[in-house]
Amino acid sequence: MSKCVIDGKEIEFEAGESVIEAAKRYDIEIPYYCWHSKLSVAANCRMCLVEVENAPKLLPACQTSCQDGMVVNTGNERVKDAQRAVHEFLLINHPIDCPICDQAGECKLQDYYMDFHKTPSRMIDRKVNKPRLEELGPHVMYNAERCIMCTRCVRFMEEVPQERQLGVFNRGDHAVIGTVPGQTLDNDYSLNTVDICPVGALTSRVFRFKQRAWNLDRSESLCGGCARGCNTYVDHRGNQVYRILPRSNDAVNECWMCDEGRLTYQRANENRMNFPMLKGEGSSINVSSEAAVNRAVELLGPAKGEGVLGAALSLHTTIEEAYAFGVLLKDTFGVEKIALLEFDAWAGDELLKVSDRNPNRQGIMLAFSALGLEVESVSSLCSRIDGGEVKALLAMGHEGEESQDLVRAVEKVEVFVHLGYAESIFSEHADVVLPIQSWLQTNGTWMNQFNRLQRLRPALNSENGTRSGLNWFTQLASGLDTNFAWADLQELRKEIEEKAATLKGISLEDIDQQGQELSS
Amino acid sequence: MSEISQALPTQNMELNIGPSHPAMHGTVKVSVELDGENIVKSNTDVGYLHRGFEKMCENVTWAQCMPYTDRLNYVSPLINNFAFCQAVEKLLEVEIPERAKFIRVIAAEISRITDHMTCCAAMGMEVGGFTPFLYMIEGRDYLYDLVERLSGARITVNFARIGGVAQDLPEDFVSDCLATLDKVFKLVDDGDKMLTRNRIFIDRMNGVGKISAEEAIAYGITGPFLRSTGVDYDVRKAHPYDVYDRFDFDVPVGDNGDCYDRWLVRLEEMRQSRKILEQALKQIPPGTVLLDNPHFALPAKDQVYTRIEGLMNHFKLVIEGARVNAGEVYSFSEGGNGELGFYIVSDGSGQPYKMRVRSPCFAIMQALDDILLPGAMLSDVVPIFGSINMIGGECDR
After folding, report:
1. Which among A358, A391, A402, B319 is most buried, taking Cβ atoms within 10 Å?
2. Which chain A residues are within 8 Å of B315, Cβ to Cβ?
3. How far does chain A reach from its first CA to its final CA, in angstroms?
4. A120 touching B, CB under 8 A?
5. Which residues of A touch B296 (CB under 8 A)?
6. A120/B306 CB distance under 8 A
7. What is the pLDDT of residue A504?
8. A380-436: per-residue pLDDT in tens?
């Protein structure tokens, strides 16, 4: 392998690797704005200038590839001078916006000012005024004054979704980013431009002015928008989610995410049910969890072993809870078929979106096949309810609630016990509602369409009245006198590992942040 | 023997003084076991004013610790401010401007007088003399007026800044300060005349709450309490900081280590503080009062409101805090009650990683149960405790 020297450190590199990448691997910080590991090199911000021995001028580290025996200096006075000067230029026309800017707190300009600039302003002329409130598309707002013209967004649109909706217009300090005439920035991946914008020029229209970045807590989670299972960061405060951002995982979503996936957080925030409910006169009434479980046991008791219970399960459920659900239904009620509550398919694309909008279909199939359970269609369940064969219904989740068949079925069925996290047509008709956690609060695993097992950790706290599905099943089982005892998730998981051959030897702790691909 | 002439069966009595008792300054409990009026054993409970100062500091920026330090020894908050800043500046390896050092000395000595005045005023009152208390507290209020002019607040001053002080001396401060000192020391002299040669006061103070120099050192006692035993340890002389080495002043010491000596030492220290103040006010040089260093000092307001560089600098310092060099430091100065030390560990971020305060009166409180109270009389509890000048905020942190 060839070697070069950066800041006195001997560094091995692969042919074609740029100085900035090689330095990054060795934790040598070179500041940059326009460079992005997944995009082409533009070398227009000039922030990454470094000194290369025998080169007459400073060279941009992002565009200079390492050569054998090359000696690079990233922090001497000459380089520091250049960094200071470049940064001063970048700030010349920058507005006095930090207090009203969404990027404040996660802004590269602020970070680098403290790290590499730190001198007072020398600007005496008026700043150039530019448009400050341009709607580039349905999700993205553009402020030209804050823009440093790094063109990351333009390159992203060209290279990743490969739809040329953005371009640079005008020259010099009049240059702005704009949409190509006749187009708006309405690509499904438009919000990625906001992520990669190093400054506050591009902001998300749903997130704008909702929260300050430094007030948000960040947790790791998964996207429930489709069966790819993009890795995400959940930014939340006071148990409300304010935005979902992509988390890097080269095996799943690189560092990108689709706009629809980002908006799924609204489902986790809105119309949450935080107390168990019983159907009352006219409206539902909140009750304690004991009262709710007792009522559910009373209603479901007669269906024990009779085969008159229908079951439906959301495809958002984790493998572990689906397994527990299956065990409860099979052992106690003799159920053999379970219907799946799912979102209808949408048009996938070549980048990230897959047509199946349900995040854990593979995983649930795995759990059911381990139990020898069959899957039935919603319409078959409905016709069995219509025919009077099924008199009681236990459903977890409410995905696909808009299906007319289902609405009719839940109205008609005699006994309906529902586990859900948000108000729906189901909770309206249910005799007993047991509130569960949303997928952002659940602990367990999902398996995406490509057989990658991924860990779902609680990103948010659970509200007072809500319980995990497993907790409710355990309470129901003890009321129904069935043997259903796992001390905790780990124990349940161990049983699944024994039953499902493909999961053999993969405990929860084994699944790292990148997930684990299973040999189908 | 007839029943009448037999000794009555007696048993020791347990008595709780405090935690909420008019004679206990702050909230502290002393339970004493009494044989008649004599104290056999005592058990002191501190911690009623524990607010987790040290832990709170780990969750805020360096600058946000400053108002917390006001609430340590709240009779002389400026000294705590400066002691904390001194520790952070030691980590940052910076030297503050000359004028700022003088302002710190001036403010600290004013605070030392308020601190000693409070204690002396209370010492008279502990043994029934209410008049001297009123005289001294009146003097203290004049000094608080000065502090208010200086910082904008009488107690919650938040006056120091990393790299200097918040603002320069107000207009005419020097002449005001000298005039106020004249007024204050007239009241101090009155208090002195009323008590020092007072028969009742001497009887109640002399030989009460005695501690030897060896014992005091063993217990880590510092300040006027230690000096009353004859040890002349004063941080201002032993390890001069700011510009203390430029002033001519004496460190008064006692020889008995009892309450009366502590009264005399504090009285004389106030006069020495006045001496320092008069020199400092005369010598104070012109110049800036805060280092102009964007690494930790906030930029001027005109820069913040009209320049993006200033705004970003301000933003980063306020939201993320000044990044203080990683490392650990112990820095100490002479507080009202003795050596006030800050032990700080920094991980290089905008917040302290660990903070520990060596509060002077906590060390003295340890000696209360072991040496000071046993053998004393019940009526001595309050004078002895008063002479410690235990400040809940500082002791309990």
Report:
1. A358
2. 98-99, 104, 110
3. 37
4. yes
5. none
6. no
7. 81
8. 888 888 888 888 889 998 887 777 777 888 888 888 899 999 888 888 888 899 999
